Amino acid sequence: MSRAGEARGRGSRGPFLRAHAWLIYLFLYAPIAILVVFSFNKATQTAVWQGFTTEWYGSLVHNELILTAVRNSLIVGVAATLLATVFGTLVALALGRYTFRGEGFTRNLLYLPIIIPEIVVGAALVTFFGVVGLRLSLVTVVIAHVVFSVSYVAIVVRARLSGFDRSLEEAALDLGARPLQTFWRVTLPLILPGIVSGALLVFTVSIDDYVITSFVAGVGATTLPLQIYSMLKVGVTPEVNAVSTLLLLLTVILIVIAQRLQQPPPEGVRD
Amino acid sequence: MRGGRRRATLFAALVLASSLAGCGGGAKQEGAAAAAAAHEKKLNLYIWSAYMPQDVLDDFTKQTGIAVHFDLYDSNESVLEKLQSGVADYDLVVPSDYMVRILIHLSLIQPLAKDRLRGLENLDPRFLNKGFDPGNRFSLPYVWGTTGYGYSRERVKGTPASWAPLFDPANKGQILMLDDMRECFSAALKFLGESINTRDEKILRKAADLLKKQKPLVKTYNSSDFENILAAGDVTYAHGYNGQIAKVIAANPGRFGYVVPKEGATIWVDSVCVPAQARHTDGIYAFLNFLLDPKIDARIINAISYASGNGAALPFIKPEIVHDPAIYAPEEALARCEFVEDIGDATELMDEYWTEIKAQ
């Protein structure tokens, strides 16, 4: 389709390509736009528009179940982000700094948790918890989220490290800074944008995760996506649309921040 | 509550999880801990969404001092997965009939200590001693419902009473069928006057032919949001579970109706069960006895609008619930309803026919 578009577009490139792009964006975003629109729908059945209202957002605030789920999701998100960010950064530093046997293999291994289907990760984790006798709870959810998100941080931070001027560290050491001082005052500030964007990515993925969480959640560990799914069972209510819209908004904000931070540092910082 | 949502995906995961989880050994040094937990004032409930009003739980806690915590699930397969993990601390679960059978078979739920239960006689005998749990050794019926069809009152004259409109060429493009093999075959078999659990090859063939002939009339096969498609007016007739259609009817007064066809339909019951590993024994039996109280049960039913497994609760349930055919199936239709049973090898045959129908 795109090839045909290109070939035809050679003569009058602009309009065709533009229309094509708009169609693709429409395809991608129309369902989401509809979800957002229907979160303001007066009707209790979602498929029919019956007028504008914000009452679903209001009733969310009084929905104890949703509030508990939001709290659980935030606890998991924050805990998983902190842990995964620390571990992921350390992994990235080790991989970026040292050369050792099997380095390539170790590096590729990092991508595995991202590539393996979530359902497999979920089944594997729940089996693992069963074998070690760890009761399913919010703790197991946090562990699971750390497992699949360490890689994100490690990959993002490693990318940052690869564009990183080693001579700055050497200069600091030459000028008498101890290794730890060098790390805190030179290395860390330079890779910080990578760490923060990795962390935001983890938070987004954690807040959204359904499949793995559904496997490893136990007593008192119903997160927001699990809550939404169980509510869907009794029909898509506008409340679900409202909470999904808020979730979407949070995710978009975090992703935008993460992308800003991932852009290469301005020249001034490098010099 | 019945539903095929994500059944296929989860099933794939479960096969995997079960083959792996089966070898896990979570139950080691638990003897002493279990004894202590039995008297702990706690209860962990794992239940469908919108199945238990909070104020009833609050009253239970007030009465007994037992704190109830509950988590929600969205499919029977979630219950299976949690119990199979061996490390989930749930004390009570509420799976559907077919899942109760599986849980018993896998020894994932424990026999009930009947001597600790008061008010068993309150339970509706129509939902006791069924094939999935003979003698109710493991399960107590909680709520039940049927699979019939919803229809638009604006487009249908009179009140339909049969499966016939769903097979009528005059309704081409106006029919939604559940995307569920057993439910579709049940509709066809009942329309033909047969049992939904027949293993007879000739009868199954006839039902399959009927479904094949029906296919061009069907606008869509859907078991996840059929109620919304009906509500939006995209179809006139929607084969579906009563609970969801009852919600459409309630949200759009006078515009929709629900039929349990006179030929009969499938019936489901969700039952309260105690996982094999459940530990808060005192809390469990206190809560089961609480549920067996007809007045308490009626309060729950009045809040959640499902039909109760507690027959003695009937006088205390709001008349508009009891007389709603989308909640309480009429007696004469109910007499011809059947539970979906395991049909053994005939499943394979049905599978084959279903593939034929869907591939057509």
Could you walk me through the main structural features you see in this protein, from its secondary elements to its overall organization?
The complex is a heterodimer of chains A (271) and B (360). Chain A is mostly helical and 271 residues long. Chain A has two domains: 2-38, no CATH class; 58-270, MetI-like fold (Orthogonal Bundle), CATH 1.10.3720. Chain A has 13 helices and no strands. Chain A has helices at 2-9, 13-38, 55-62, 64-97, 103-115, 118-132, 138-162, 166-174, 179-208, 211-216, 224-232, 238-262, 267-270. With 360 residues, chain B is of the alpha/beta class. Chain B has two domains: 7-144 and 269-329, 3-Layer(aba) Sandwich (D-Maltodextrin-Binding Protein, domain 2), CATH 3.40.190; 145-266 and 337-359, Periplasmic binding protein-like II (D-Maltodextrin-Binding Protein, domain 2, 3-Layer(aba) Sandwich). Chain B contains 14 helices and eleven strands. Chain B has helices spanning 7-21, 31-38, 54-64, 76-85, 97-105, 181-191, 201-214, 226-231, 242-251, 281-292, 294-304, 319-322, 331-334, 346-359, and strands spanning 42-48, 67-73, 92-93, 139-152, 175-177, 218-221, 237-241, 256-259, 266-273, 307-308, 338-339. In chain B, α6 packs across α7 (201-214) and α7 packs parallel to α14. The longest helix of chain B has 15 residues, at 7-21. Chain B is globular. The interface between A and B is large, with 42 and 49 residues.
What labels describe this entry?
heterodimer; A: 271 residues; mainly alpha; MetI-like fold; 2 domains; globular; disordered N terminus; B: 360 residues; alpha/beta; D-Maltodextrin-Binding Protein, domain 2; eight-stranded mixed sheet; three-stranded parallel sheet; 14 helices; 11 strands; 16% strand
Any chance you could write out the topology, listing elements then pairs?
The complex is a heterodimer of chains A (271) and B (360).
Chain A: H1 2-9, H2 13-38, H3 55-62, H4 64-97, H5 103-115, H6 118-132, H7 138-162, H8 166-174, H9 179-208, H10 211-216, H11 224-232, H12 238-262, H13 267-270
Chain B: H1 7-21, H2 31-38, E1 42-48, H3 54-64, E2 67-73, H4 76-85, E3 92-93, H5 97-105, E4 139-152, E5 175-177, H6 181-191, H7 201-214, E6 218-221, H8 226-231, E7 237-241, H9 242-251, E8 256-259, E9 266-273, H10 281-292, H11 294-304, E10 307-308, H12 319-322, H13 331-334, E11 338-339, H14 346-359
Parallel strand pairs in B: 1-2, 1-3, 5-6, 5-7, 9-11
Antiparallel strand pairs in B: 4-7, 4-8, 4-9, 4-10
Helix pairs in contact in B: 1-4, 6-7, 7-14
